[in-house]
Amino acid sequence: MKQLLFSLTLSFFATINFISAQSEDETAIKSKLIEQQEAWSNNDLEGFMQGYWESDSLTYYSGGKVTQGWQTTLDNYEKGYPSKKDTGTLRFQIDAITEITKDAYYVMGQYFLTREAGDKNGTFMIIFKKINGKWKIIADSSC
């Protein structure tokens, strides 16, 4: 009986630690997305891009087109959203954060742009990976 009680207690604490680790990761990812919302809403596209992996391997998929690279993604954002009236105010709605592996999650959600140039809404699925201790977007699919 003592052994069963010990096993159950050990199991309980292992589960609590696992849930806490997930919560910390999810909290960190949500925090990164809040930082991105704020940067975008301040027309700071380079600040927005700090959430992305600064690599030529960053993958972005939108409008049936795949592009590669951090700089290419930033260039495309700057071309498509040249001024504050184009960037407007960004708000994310997170629908799901799902663990893929210990150091990777996918996030599904919606974005809402309120702007002078006309409101724009859509969906996204992004993949976050922990790189050098920081959560970074390594792939983004938005429409």
Overall spatial form: globular
Number of domains: 1
Query: Could you name the ranges where pLDDT drops below 50 across 5 or more consecutive residues?
Result: 4-20
Count all strands and give the number.
6
Mean pLDDT: 89
Keywords, separated by commas or semicolons:
NTF2-like_dom_sf; 6-stranded mixed β-sheet; alpha+beta; Nuclear Transport Factor 2, Chain: A; globular; single chain; 143 residues
Question: Would you mind describing this structure in some detail?
Answer:
- It holds the Pfam family DUF4440.
- InterPro entries: DUF4440, NTF2-like_dom_sf.
- This is DUF4440 domain-containing protein.
- The chain is of the alpha+beta class and 143 residues long.
- The protein has one domain (2-142): Nuclear Transport Factor 2, Chain: A, CATH 3.10.450.50.
- The protein has four helices and six strands; from the N terminus they run ααββααββββ.
- It has helices at residues 2-41, 45-48, 70-80, 84-87, and strands spanning 59-62, 65-68, 89-101, 104-114, 120-131, 134-142.
- A hairpin with a 2-residue loop joins β1 and β2 (65-68).
- The longest helix is centred in the first third of the chain and has 40 residues, at 2-41.
- Residues 4-20 have low confidence and may be disordered.
List the helices and strands and how they pair.
Blueprint: H1 2-41, H2 45-48, E1 59-62, E2 65-68, H3 70-80, H4 84-87, E3 89-101, E4 104-114, E5 120-131, E6 134-142
Parallel strand pairs: 1-6
Antiparallel strand pairs: 1-2, 3-4, 4-5, 5-6
